[in-house]
Automatic annotation (TrEMBL):
<keyword id="KW-0408">Iron</keyword>
<dbReference type="GO" id="GO:0003861">
    <property type="term" value="F:3-isopropylmalate dehydratase activity"/>
</dbReference>
<feature type="binding site">
    <location>
        <position position="408"/>
    </location>
    <ligand>
        <name>[4Fe-4S] cluster</name>
    </ligand>
</feature>
<keyword id="KW-0479">Metal-binding</keyword>
<dbReference type="GO" id="GO:0009098">
    <property type="term" value="P:L-leucine biosynthetic process"/>
</dbReference>
<keyword id="KW-0432">Leucine biosynthesis</keyword>
<comment type="pathway">
    <text>Amino-acid biosynthesis; L-leucine biosynthesis; L-leucine from 3-methyl-2-oxobutanoate: step 2/4.</text>
</comment>
<protein>
    <recommendedName>
        <fullName>3-isopropylmalate dehydratase large subunit</fullName>
        <ecNumber>4.2.1.33</ecNumber>
    </recommendedName>
</protein>
<comment type="function">
    <text>Catalyzes the isomerization between 2-isopropylmalate and 3-isopropylmalate, via the formation of 2-isopropylmaleate.</text>
</comment>
<dbReference type="InterPro" id="IPR001030">
    <property type="entry name" value="Acoase/IPM_deHydtase_lsu_aba"/>
</dbReference>
<dbReference type="Pfam" id="PF00330">
    <property type="entry name" value="Aconitase"/>
</dbReference>
<keyword id="KW-0004">4Fe-4S</keyword>
<keyword id="KW-0028">Amino-acid biosynthesis</keyword>
<dbReference type="InterPro" id="IPR050067">
    <property type="entry name" value="IPM_dehydratase_rel_enz"/>
</dbReference>
<feature type="region of interest" description="Disordered">
    <location>
        <begin position="60"/>
        <end position="79"/>
    </location>
</feature>
<comment type="similarity">
    <text>Belongs to the aconitase/IPM isomerase family. LeuC type 1 subfamily.</text>
</comment>
<keyword id="KW-0456">Lyase</keyword>
Length: 468
């Protein structure tokens, strides 16, 4: 048998039919659903009198539109458009009999945090969702990617998806990370090195010592941003950490089924002599705590750097940089650490997990914020409860942070948590394009520890310079 990558293995195990031109019908193990990309898909089923093919493998949760302030069960708290989307999900979940976590349920949260938390996401699976950051689930050694609304309808109706296979790309992070450097710095640095189109046409497997050393939370952060690097999906071979994280979760297999699953899961690694169409290698020790300065995730630099000049770039990038700098209100040569921040947002499916909140709380403990507003938005109700139990919520509140309810929140301007024009934000989310966090809002992406450091000083800050 010819050697295979992990992606090849999962792909082959899910092909139902292959057409002559290589187009495949893939079986889908998990379909995650949120309120933004699903209403028309359910409507399509209704109009043609079809059912959801596998309601037991279909999991819905509202996250993008939900307010993150108390009393949000009251629909009057939402603007009309949000109310319609959330009400439609409520109704569709009931009508089609799929698993559902409404806002009143403590398990509600961002779909990419809820899936793994509840044990829906397992190694070797195919996982789809009408959402580009579905790549997050690849951290478990699953083939997970976003799909469009018409594909959502197709998966609801058939539990399959029409796909062409991508090429194999390996991103290896060798050796150890330095203190203050996190999974977010890895994933941003990879995009900085490859560009936002570097992964186009590929599924990325992240590997190497620095990846193996990451917790499951960190691995989810890395895979979450595979899509920002242009890749179809990102994944990491499962290991003992993966199995330990999954074991005992509500929807993970139990007993004999667990044993059977483990037998397969242990084979889920790329063969030593597998073929890679593209390889990128970064040394862990070369990665610094980074921030973005522009309006693309590839506009990333070590925090010790200065704002670049348009002339530093080539071709079309010169004009793009000029526009970015203008939008961001920055001057070439300005030290990144001199950039003043109005708002800090800690949350999102990139960095809204318990470990992220722990990392931020460790920086914040016993100190006060200097920014106008700062908020921590746990990625799920369960993350929130755990953070409260661990005393993290008190640390944040005493420092002056708002302690919110779970949702996508200020990651994107689809709910009441938005930036005002010109407002500058240190954010732990994954996208920084124009208007992403609100009309004319300015976003700098970074790790939770770096965002916490910015909250304390009022400007972008090297977390390594914050002392206890
Ligand atoms: C609204 C949704 C379709 C979108 C996505 O696909 O990623 C959102 O989650 C985002 O992060 O921009
Ligand atoms: S937290 Fe942000 S990136 Fe993640 S699903 Fe929500 S809007 Fe998309």
């Amino acid at each position: 048998m010819s050697p295979k990558t992990l992606y090849d293995k999962i792909w082959d195990a899910h092909v139902v039919h292959e057409a002559e031109d290589g187009t495949c019908l893939l079986y889908i193990d998990r379909h995650l659903v949120h309120e933004v990309t699903s209403p028309q898909a359910f409507e399509g089923l209704r109009m043609t009198g079809r059912k959801v093919r596998a309601p037991d493998k279909t999991i819905a949760v509202p996250d993008h539109n939900v307010p993150t302030t108390p009393g949000r069960e009251n629909p009057d708290q939402m603007p009309e458009e949000s109310r319609i989307q959330v009400a439609a999900l409520d109704q569709n979940a009931r009508d089609f009999g799929i698993h559902y976590y409404p806002v009143s349920d403590i398990r509600q949260g961002i779909v990419h945090i809820v899936g793994p938390e509840q044990g829906w996401t397992l190694p070797g699976m195919t996982v789809v969702c009408g959402d580009s950051h579905t790549a997050t689930h690849g951290a478990f050694g699953a083939l997970a990617h976003g799909i469009g609304t018409s594909e959502v309808e197709h998966v609801l109706a058939t539990q399959t998806l029409i796909q062409k296979k991508s090429k194999n790309m390996k991103v290896e992070i060798t050796g150890k990370l330095r203190p203050g450097v996190t999974a977010k710095d890895i994933t941003l640095s990879v995009i900085g090195a490859t560009g936002t189109a570097g992964g186009t046409g590929y599924v990325i497997e992240y590997c190497g010592e620095a990846i193996r050393d990451l917790s499951m939370e960190g691995r989810m952060t890395v895979c979450n941003m595979a899509i920002e690097g242009g890749a179809r999906a990102g994944l990491i071979a499962p290991d003992e950490k993966t199995f330990a994280y999954v074991n005992g979760r509500p929807h993970a297999p139990k007993g004999a089924q667990w044993e059977a699953a483990m037998t397969w899961w242990k084979t889920l690694r790329s063969d030593d002599d597998a073929h890679w169409d593209k390889v990128v290698t970064l040394k862990g020790e070369d990665i610094s705590p980074v921030v973005t300065w522009g309006t693309s995730p590839e506009d990333v630099l070590p925090i010790t750097g200065v704002v670049p000049a348009p002339e530093d770039f080539k071709g079309g990038k010169v004009e793009a940089a000029r526009r970015s700098l203008d939008y961001m209100g920055l001057t070439p040569g300005q030290k990144l650490t001199d950039i003043e921040i109005d708002t800090v947002f800690i949350g999102s499916c990139t960095n809204g997990r318990i470990e992220d909140l722990r990392a931020a709380a460790e920086i914040v403990k016993g100190k006060k914020i200097k920014v106008k507003r700062a908020m921590v938005v746990p990625g799920s109700g369960l993350v929130r409860a755990q953070a409260e139990e661990e005393g993290l919520a008190d640390i944040f509140k005493e420092a002056g942070f708002e302690w919110r309810l779970a949702g996508c929140s200020m990651c994107l301007a689809m709910n009441p948590d938005q930036l005002a024009p010109g407002e500058r934000c240190a954010a732990t989310s994954n996208r920084n394009f124009e208007g992403r966090q609100g009309y004319k809002g300015r976003t700098h992406l970074m790790s939770p520890a770096m965002a916490a450091a910015a909250a304390l000083t009022g400007h972008l800050t090297d977390v390594r310079r914050i002392t206890g």
